[in-house]
Each structure stands twice: as C-alpha cells, then as structure tokens.
Amino acid sequence: MAESTASVTWQENKAFMGVSPSGHNVQIDADKEKGASPMELILLGLGGCASYDVVGILQKSRQDVQGVRCELTAQRAETVPAVYTDIHLHFVVTGNDIAEKQVERAIHLSAEKYCSASRMLANGGVNVTHDYEIIAG
C-alpha cells in the first residue's frame, strides 16, 4: 500500500498552509478572498482527478483534444456535518473531430475505474453524476 504524507499548519485566525505530498503549498482559509476552503479543495481535487483521466484516455484514443474544462456543481447537506450530497461534473471538450463515443467512454472509465477521488466520494454516499458537451476546435 502506498503511503502519502502531507501537512497543514495553522497560520492565524482561520488560515492554514497546506503542503501536499509533492511539496506544493496550498493556502486554505475560511476567508474566501485569501484561500480556498477545505470543501472547495475537495471539489477541485475531484475535478482535477477526473479531468486528468479524461484527457489521458482521449489522447490515448487518438482524439485531437485541444481543451478540457470540468465545471462542478455541488449540493451540501443543510445540517452539520455539511457534507456533499450531490456533485455533478460537466465536461466541456474542445477539439477537432472528437468522437462522442470516445468522450462517453473516457468519462465512464474515469468515474468507474480510474478516478480515486470519484470512487471514494461515491462509495461514501455522494451522488456523483456526469455529462459533457463537445465544441469543435
């Protein structure tokens, strides 16, 4: 089993500095003008994980991908703990002659097999859904 180490250090008030296992600093703050909140980072992690998979799968299937954007919409429970209950990922794929079947396949493989963030959230009871649009490059 692979081990990862990270750290989060309190700075002041509700501000923290996170250091990722790869050594990157991430500002975490309740003040959204100063940093991302912990729950925002969960959304970004899911979007990054899924997008990484989708781009890689499309490239391996020889699609002329010029851009991928993942727009996430999330709903949270109204009571504490205010966990995510539903997260929707909308992929906007830009490129030349992108095959719809390949985009569907890439999203499905990411959601069901490769994206550990998606699997972890879905297995924890979050309803994770997906759709996409293709824009000619």
Automatic annotation (TrEMBL):
It comes from the Bacteria. It comes from Psychrobacter urativorans. Pfam families: OsmC. NCBIfam families: PRK10738.1. This is Osmotically inducible protein OsmC.
